[in-house]
Amino acid sequence: MLSTLTYLSAIGGVVALIYAIILAVRINKMESGTERMKEIAQSINEGAKAFLFSEYKILVIFVATVFVVISVCGIITKSDVLNYRTALAFLIGAILSTLAGYCGMSVATKANVRTANAAKEKGMNSALSTAFSGGAVMGMCVSGLGLLGVCLIYAITGDDNILFGFSLGASSIALFARVGGGIYTKAADVGADLVGKVEAGIPEDDPRNPATIADNVGDNVGDVAGMGADLFESYAGSLISAISLGVLAFSGSSSWKYAVFPCLLSAIGLISSIIGTLFVRGKDGKNPQKALNTGTYVASILVVISAILLSYFMLGTFRFAIAIIAGLLVGLLIGTITEMYTSDKFPFVKKIAKQSETGSATTIISGIAVGMQSTLIPSILIGVGIFVAYFVTNGTGADGTSGIYGIALAAVGMLSTTGITVAVDAYGPIADNAGGIAEMSNLPDEVREITDSLDSVGNTTAAIGKGFAIGSAALTALALFFTFAQKVNLATIDIMNYKVVIGLLVGGMLPFLFSSLTMDSVSKAAQSMIEEVRRQFRTIPGILEGKSKPDYKNCVAISTHAALRQMILPGILAIVSPIIIGVLLGAEALGGMLGGSLTTGVLLAIFMSNSGGAWDNAKKYIEGGHHGGKGSPSHKAAVVGDTVGDPFKDTSGPSINILIKLMTIVSLVFAPLFGNGIIG
Amino acid sequence: MLSTLTYLSAIGGVVALIYAIILAVRINKMESGTERMKEIAQSINEGAKAFLFSEYKILVIFVATVFVVISVCGIITKSDVLNYRTALAFLIGAILSTLAGYCGMSVATKANVRTANAAKEKGMNSALSTAFSGGAVMGMCVSGLGLLGVCLIYAITGDDNILFGFSLGASSIALFARVGGGIYTKAADVGADLVGKVEAGIPEDDPRNPATIADNVGDNVGDVAGMGADLFESYAGSLISAISLGVLAFSGSSSWKYAVFPCLLSAIGLISSIIGTLFVRGKDGKNPQKALNTGTYVASILVVISAILLSYFMLGTFRFAIAIIAGLLVGLLIGTITEMYTSDKFPFVKKIAKQSETGSATTIISGIAVGMQSTLIPSILIGVGIFVAYFVTNGTGADGTSGIYGIALAAVGMLSTTGITVAVDAYGPIADNAGGIAEMSNLPDEVREITDSLDSVGNTTAAIGKGFAIGSAALTALALFFTFAQKVNLATIDIMNYKVVIGLLVGGMLPFLFSSLTMDSVSKAAQSMIEEVRRQFRTIPGILEGKSKPDYKNCVAISTHAALRQMILPGILAIVSPIIIGVLLGAEALGGMLGGSLTTGVLLAIFMSNSGGAWDNAKKYIEGGHHGGKGSPSHKAAVVGDTVGDPFKDTSGPSINILIKLMTIVSLVFAPLFGNGIIG
User: Fold this and answer.
1) % helix / strand / coil in chain B, to the nearest 5?
2) What are the residue ranges spanned by the domains of chain A?
3) What ipTM did this prediction achieve?
4) Closest residue of A to B497, CA-based?
5) pLDDT in tens, A95-125
6) For B349, which of A523, B93, B178, B344 could close a Cys bridge (C-beta 3.0–4.6 Å)?
7) What's the pTM value of the predicted model, to 2 decimals?
């Protein structure tokens, strides 16, 4: 029965993948427009793949190393968690996450030009639907492959311990995709803007700028593939922790039901997401945001209804449904709050725009103040979510553990609609790219107007998506953290223990250090890009007159290598820190460290993402004609804010999601190595 | 024996106060220079007192309210900690802290003009010694009154519980002085600069600027009185927690020794500080920094020797001396690290200056990256300090508690040289003011050169002092936190408990929110100031030609009221948050909240202070002729960094010290109100 129902859940993943294939084929069949458009799209596609293949070269070495390390540790420790089967699961997790990213991005880079062409030939509705279909492929690949992988491994082996290997694999890819991609996208962006716009005085997305293609590649690499890998990790991690805690919390013959419940729920969520995507249809003269919201709401309502039925008929109580719904609601509300702090329809962004009148310093200060203030409601929301999920489920099984199972269910609930959430999120960069292609191909202004209006909605969905990614990373990391504590049989993680306090402080420091490193990485990678663009302007004759073609490929290659090289130090920090603390001070101190990094990590990520988003939209608000409009001193000040916000919101902030999840899963997998610590 | 030795310790405080009086009388006898100089000094003195008296008006109401609340709660709960005696101790703590601030600031505002005059009449050495003597009065008042108050209360009552009232009193004053003063000083600074320098184009400290006096008052209000109250709180808090934990950790007839040990050690530290100040003598052609360092090192070495002897002969082991020395060393090292990150002799500030070449956005990003990175070593240092202090002392008494006593001793050790640390720190604003007076009185350039070189040293000592203030606040808050946990008889504060996790997250968020509020407060208060300066320029005829005098007093009054009004919201947040969490979720969740706010608070304070300090010195480095020098585009970018850094380093950063200590002591005093929480 266990394996039957788990296989059944896996079928949900298969359905999603079939749906993804249908959408991909349909997109592929669409017209891509003029020769010029095709050429540009081809360059972006090739650039994105060039990044991925460079990344894969390092990935292969990395994955092989970790595979060997886990296997060797397994031989030494003879542990249930750490063995060659875990290593295999790790491999599968890494491969599936890579596959999801590759397929999603391939389709996204095809959908962009077709979106531009649809805008040109058929108008807004068709463009919206094309861009969204492209995003939906990513969404279906992420959740389909995630669900399929976890359920198949669990159905075949019936062993929840080796699933952590799968989660570690997903986390490793996310590290490369989100951190490396985040560095890439901002380095290319800064390089393109600084030399092109500021030094040479040519407009954004101008084909004479050698970094233009790299800039557009960056949108796909960072915002599509990076975000997808981030959510793949959260999706798999929360599901796995729920399975594991379900096994731990409930004894007796029906224990398996609690492990299968989250799988079935995820499958239902995935089907609900597919149904939701069918409701995303643009209407002429209507805001595309409405169409996207409708899809999300339909999927959410379907999950709520199914959760209630499933919880009652399968587990005999509504309690587990409440935990699921709590998570789902918290996710939706965090998205809404994020929008509140980063959209110009609300007073916060308007305040920053107003402060731009007195110069860039006041713009920066008010943006930082807004970002810091924006931590208030999300942290209380997460707190309330934890409270409700624990409170309603505790006592249904083992005391304490069943409540923790409820928290993991809340994470599963929040992520159940990942399919459509990723679709909405990935829609943004596709629309953005479509605009870039329209600009570079000199398409008529009406086309650019359509893509601009799609893009402006994309900015909002991107902000909401970031909020959702942070919220889900927080709940996932928390669920994994509890699983860690259970698996290493810690009676307590007591802040009154001096080692735990040390762990808390050091753990709290890591997100600050990590953010500092990723910001430095962007600066350094951007520097390489700036030099290359300057070199091309200097050495290629006639490039600025549009008479000769810039060498786009070299720009892509340079920022690829710079980004991947700059990723190494923060990556090592994330993987090695928990092992050092675990070995030195023991498992309980490691628990403190994870608690500390989770706390400051979530807050810092919210602060940085929202400051960045708010600055971005304050600039756009001014460009819309307020406080002097484009070119005014206010606008100049706002551009400074936006430039500071870029690494905040697109590199450092999102990278923290990876840090907190990766450190927790590393701790979980390597837990057998940690005793009481070799010192103290 | 207990009371005899405690009285003996109190005598150390009396000696310090006598020394302070001698210094004050000596300063008072010195010449204050020309009529113009006297007039300006008089205005600063009056302005500073005007701020203090306005503050006192609110303080009286606040203190009276808390006094009544504690007394009433005492009647209801019939608790050992919460009763009318605690309320009395609260009153004494508040009065003594106020007294220390008032006396120290009065002398500082007299020493500034005499420093300017000494520079004019006698040269560098005499000016250095005058400025330092002024600072020393503050140092002696802070530690003398702190030691005297704590020891007398303890000697008379023999009750360590009511001492927490004293600590709460000190914390309350610190809230007003550090947060209110921090808002005042930056509002005045921004107001003076923006309208004077930018809009009217007149130089800094120009007497035609109506905000000039307010700006100079701000140095005293924020950097002298605010910093003094902050360290008074740490000094008293750490001593009190050591006394209390000494009583708890050691049973038997010699238990009293462990309570008296920190008192005696503080008395020795105070005498050592006095001896240290005698070693601060300028030599012609030598860097004044050396003289200041010598004083600090002499005092530290004396404390180390005394700690070893006292620990061995009084408590029969060297172990407690090691804890003391660990704290002292961590304090000195954090100061050194702070200097490393904020002085232009090291690569970090140089890097920011270099980044200024590419505009203000890169200046901001690199400054934030440097500040975030600067959290690494201090948090590890504090961690090592905690480890050593706990490890060597645990097992000497009750298991666990004796180790915690060791951590409190480390805090006492770090703060034992507060006398000279405050002296060095308060020297900076006095030298800064002396420069301002020299400028406003049109003294010759040679005089300004001397005050400038004193001031530049003052910037370094201010940065070190800030690092020390944060480090000591962290250790003090930690010691109080452990005392809280012991006093409410918590068996554990377990992060695996869902309520503790909620507490951790909400507590972690509070420093972000608090910083956001204080930054907003500066903006709002600065706005009032800007409007007033503009109004005076507009309505007072001949003001810009120097023909008629600006209304300095009105500027002082306006920024005083704005600062105090803007202080209310963050102040309420600090006091009410722990009570709400304690009542709603109970004492253990409150423990989690304190742990969370301690973690993010310390890190955020280090980040903000060091980013601010680094930007400030990057600007000065450029002004020194690098990267294009004064007036270059690099300089303009660096000015933006400095302006963002101002509220970072002088308002929000230091205010967090108060937040984390105040929340802990509020929890400790009101602990009898919290049970298991009314929900969950």
Assistant:
1) 85, 0, 15
2) 7-673
3) 0.95
4) A400
5) 999 999 999 999 999 999 999 999 999 888 8
6) B344
7) 0.96
